[in-house]
Amino acid sequence: QVQLVESGGGLVQAGGSLRLSCAASGRTFSTYAMGWFRQAPGKEREFVAVITWNGSTYYQDSVKGRFTMSRDNAKNTMYLQMNSLKPEDTAVYYCAVGRNIMDADYWGQGTQVTVSS
Fold it and tell me: Three-class SS string for 80-111?
């Protein structure tokens, strides 16, 4: 059974940093894209970042230069380093895995990130 488990969320002041982790189990995802999405209260879930199987990364415009995504295939884990956080980054963050990240096959349960002003 495949599971994705996020960790690292929490409450931080504006300008601060958090590092999210997502550990996958149940199968190996070295040939899959891994990504992060987020959903703020009252809004639809939106794409944040993706890292392809060969390490290329793409970001939503609003997080470029502030967020960095990485992966460790040996640990079957993905990371999202979030710096210079803003109150508008407040959301539940979800990790996902799939051949096409915009049509992900597997999702984590979500972790809350709250940025206070």
Answer: EEECCCCHHHCEEEEEEEECCHHHCCEECCCE
Residues 6+ apart with CB under 8 A from 65: none
Kindly report the number of other CB atoms within 10 A of residue 28's CB atom: 10
Bridge partners, residue 38, by sequence: 46, 93
20 neighbors 80 (Cβ within 8 angstroms): yes
Specify whether the CB–CB gap between 36 and 96 falls below 8 A. yes
CA atoms lying within 13 Å on the CB side of residue 99: 0
13, 115 in Cβ contact below 8 A? yes
Q: What is the largest CA-CA distance in the chain?
A: 40
pLDDT tens-digit map of 64-111: 999 999 999 999 999 999 999 999 999 999 999 999 999 999 999 999
